[in-house]
Amino acid sequence: MLKEIFTIQHYHSKLYINRDGKLFWNSKGGTPRTLESLPKNIQTLFYIKFIRDHQLASLVSGIAPLACIELYIKAKFLKRIFIFFAITITSIYCVRSQAVDESYEFINTIYNETTNIIHVEQEFKTLNPFKDLNFVSEKFFRDEWQPIKIGEVPDIEAFLLGISIQHLNDFANQKQTFSIDSSKLNSKIKVVYNLDQYLKEGGIVSQISRPFMSCTKEWAIIYTSSYSKDFSGGGNWYIYRKVDGKWVYYHKINIFMT
């Protein structure tokens, strides 16, 4: 369900927001599309009019919690204090709302069905293995969702509607390192403390990230890769969706190959 926010008459365009805080637009009564698909100059007009009309407070209280609203007011377009405040509050809320125990509960759940013991490094890897801090975008997901057109894939629109790209980017680019607490892992996952010796003995080691979770706790993404002294298996993002209270595998995106 989409709620109309306002219209820019000159361009015959209307801006809408859905129940999850995702923004859409249409022109001359066409099919609504995501705001990110607009040309940058038109996006800027939407942002300016949105601010000028002081719509922020009413949207936050009437449609969706601030933490789950896609950050449609971008600081790169308008450097206003209250924009910075909104972005800051959202980031703090989303980061704090993901408790440490939730991360371990998720990891234990997805590895619970494996028949082999998974040996992991002592620290979580970052979700972003690249130097490019802004590689995550809607275009990235659309390009990589099905790079080879073979078979059927799950619905990308449901996924994009359920996450905030800005929140995901902020999480993926965190510089702080986190040690893995082996006491919080189930018996299927073992931390390797003497990595060199383990590799010399022919062991295979997995790298895992702290899982990203959407503010609604419906979607999660974890980065994993595996290697030994003789090979490296590349890296993937595994996307999960919570269905009836359980994490269910949804899709895999290859991040890099070796």
Helix content: 25-40%
Number of separate helices: 8
First CA to last CA: what distance? 43 Å
Beta-strand share of residues: 15-25%
Instruction: Give a quick account of the main beta sheet: strands, pairing sense, barrel closure.
Output: 5 strands, antiparallel
Shape estimate: elongated
Mean pLDDT: 76
Gyration radius from CA atoms, angstroms = 21 Å
Q: How many individual β-strands? A: 11
**Low-pLDDT segments:** 51-89
Structural class: alpha+beta
Order of helices and strands: EEEEHHHHEHHHEHEEEEE
Could you give a quick summary of the protein structure above?
By secondary structure, the chain is of the alpha+beta class. It is built from eight helices and eleven strands. The longest helix has 17 residues, at 81-97.
Provide an overview of this structure.
- By secondary structure, the protein is of the alpha+beta class.
- Helix content is 30%, strand content 25%.
- The protein has helices at 40-52, 56-62, 81-97, 100-111, 138-145, 156-162, 165-172, 195-200, and strands at 2-8, 13-18, 23-27, 33-34, 118-120, 189-191, 205-208, 212-213, 219-227, 232-243, 246-256.
- The strands form three sheets. Strands 7, 8, 9, 10 and 11 form a five-stranded antiparallel sheet that branches. It has a four-stranded antiparallel sheet with strand order 1-2-3-4, covered by helices on one side.
- Mean pLDDT is 76; it is low at 51-89.
